[in-house]
Amino acid sequence: MRIPAHSVCTAIRDDIVSGVYERGGRLTEELLARRYGVSRVPVREALRTLEAEGFVVTRRHAGACVAEPTEQEAADLLEVRMLLEPLGAARAAQRRTEAHLKVLRGLVRLGQERSRRGQSEDLRSLGGWFHETLAQASGSPGLTALLTQLRHKIAWMYVVDVSAASAESWAEHAAIVDAVARGDAERARSLTAAHAERATAAHRLRFPARGERGRDRDRVRDSQHAVNTVGLRH
Predict the structure, then answer these.
(1) Quick check: 175 and 191 in contact, CB under 8 A?
(2) Of 124, 176, 187, 211, whose Cβ has the fewest other Cβ atoms within 10 Å?
(3) Within a 13 Å sphere around the CA of 223, how many CA atoms are in the beta-carbon half?
(4) Minimal CA–CA distance to 23: which of 224, 205, 227?
(5) Helix count and strand count (H, E) for the chain
(6) Tens digit of pLDDT for each residue in 115-156?
(7) Buried b (16+ CB within 10 A) or exposed e, 63-99
(8) pTM for this entry
(9) For 7, phi and psi rounded to 5 degrees?
């Protein structure tokens, strides 16, 4: 059975984001195909997609390599997010379904509960699901895709302290959902803009200094696994 290129793409992207492949490191089709248990065809397609997304670059004499974003490029992503997330929330207030509201309210309840318990790992996942669902509620596939790509790249470039002011963060999420439920696009927009601006302060660049690249390389994981087309995250 041929593994879809998008599943291979998801697996490679996840490994780039989690640090399995260091910035600047080569990504050879043969080794990737062996790692994920697929042929070179879906790997080649996946690399083209990841290059378009900015995770991979093609270098002369080296081939495909993991991109090395600058600090300015990383800062630009946060700025773009602060522009797009409020737009998504405003559209969600106009286009959301009852199913979207049910999921958003459920995530807020779980987030507030986990925040009281100090379960930071759960908070990280719940926060991601909240913003993904809010983007989907916008009813705009193009905007949703852009926001999803932004979240992937920001997770790659930044460490986020989700435990800092987590109770306040989930109170803000709850207020956003209330505005979306009432169909108040302008309030949803302004609340989301303020939330995104405050959340930016919890972001810290992952990039090691040039002299630390060697130590960073030693920490790169070299686990082997095959693609699980059911369990892959999208």
Answers:
(1) yes
(2) 211
(3) 10
(4) 205
(5) 10, 4
(6) 888 777 788 889 999 999 999 999 999 999 999 999 999 999
(7) ebbbbebeeeebeebbeebbebbbbbbbbbbeebeee
(8) 0.78
(9) -70, -40
